[in-house]
Amino acid sequence: MEAEQIKVTARSNPSQRIIAAGIVIAFCYWAASLVMTLLLSILIAYFLDPVVEGLERWRVPRALGSLLVLLLALSVVGGLGYTIFDRLDRFAADWPKYSAVLKEGSAAVEQKLEKLEARVSEIAPQGRVRVLVSQEPWPIRSLLLRGLGSLYSILLVATFVPFLVFFMLAAKRNVWHATLQLFPATERTRVKEALEQLSALLRSYVAGNALVAGILALVSWIFFWIIGLDYPFLAGLTSGLLNLVPYLGAVLAWVPPFIIGLTKWSSIGPYLGIAGMLSFFHLIAINVLMPALVGRRVHLNALAVTLALLFWGWLWGAIGLILAIPIMATLKVVCDNVEGWRPVGRWLAA
Questions:
Q1: What is the pLDDT of residues 30-67, one digit of tens each?
Q2: For residues 321 and 312, is the Cβ–Cβ distance under 8 A?
């Protein structure tokens, strides 16, 4: 009797895929600090890896080169942080005069709303009982606990990211080799090509965005200095970074100079000029600088980018907005190299 060869294939049905996706999303939510720390470390490692490879070509051992590059990066970040903190300290000392103007403006808006409400109540049918709901002030304890939770997340990221980046840079070859060993020998070539494609994509994305952010911050700083705005460096740096946020950045970049200009200008003309110039900077950055520096490696359509920003921004807040596009671009690379998921990759790039 001839032995029968039975080939067993295991495929997941849609229900199992939905359950698996729900488990992954729940893990990303409950382990947000862990996942965000890991992803930020990966992005920074991809950004610093070309410098480490350059030192290797100069016969510097990879572990030593990784340490030197990391120390240099920390020095740059520390110097920039000290400069920003000094400006913030001065701005905090002058904050009462800005808050006074903001309170006057909010009081004027509240008076107009009360007049509008009074007119509406005159038009409304009589006989209805108006219920006034008093809102209690936010409890101090909950605010302190919320602040401690945010501080814990920041300290966790600041503590572990440098170590993770160093280990990723120093042990890159070993990690890549171990990753390839997880796949069958027939699939390793394809996996290696996918990893190289992902490496080039993330590296160009992070480096390009960092360079564009620096250019926008410098140009905004010069512009604010020319028009005589107070704290031009602080406003330029904040507006330059906010300008990189897709879609919303063009409007968010207006907020810092608008607030600082409250005590300087009383007419609407300067604010319109600032809004127009910052919008012009945003258009140049998105349509000229980003394609030239980042290239066309991130092939994502506008709908995919918007959905990614909405989802990851809702899940992780501001850090989610930073990581949304790299996560979606990584997902597209995976879909392009997995035969069953290629339609999803084509949809993301449509």
A1: 888 888 888 888 888 888 888 898 888 898 898 898 99
A2: yes
